Amino acid sequence: MTSTREKGSFRLPPELLRQLDGFAQSKRVSRTAVVEAALASYLSPDGADRLEATVSRRLDRISRQLDRLEWHVELSNETLALFIRFWLTVTVPLPDTAMKPAQAMGKERWAHFLESLSRRMESGVRLKEELPVDVSPKN
Asked: I want to staple 29 with a disulfide (CB 3.0 to 4.6 A). Which of 6, 33, 50, 104 is the partner?
């Protein structure tokens, strides 16, 4: 009985060879079987179609993520703009005699704000979870 296989040799970079060995061991197959399957897939006429479909799915996922990110950035910008407009509208300028006590109180309030923000970031609670569902990004 004669083999229909032909012998070929090629060189691989050490890191790629380590990856090949690790993959073959994890799948409990020979290195030859992995290389044969990879080459068959790569050279297959529908290989390009599969690759295109994979890339397309990834691009679609990235596009959805960017849409959500855009919505959150827009929400942050509008929230900040609304706050600034409100603050400028309701805050009266202070006389010079009240400036130092106000600055001291401002520093104290800033420190409290940073502590609160830190606790909130560590707890995992996010503004998007507090918003009604009907104003969340449409995905």
From this structure: 33
CA dist 57 → 43, 48, 93 (Å): 22, 14, 55
pLDDT greater than 90 at residue 61: yes
pLDDT in tens, 48-59: 787 788 899 999
Domain ranges, residue 19: 14-43
Structural domain contains residue 139? no
**43: enclosing H helix or E strand:** helix 31-43
| Pair 56, 83 in one domain | yes
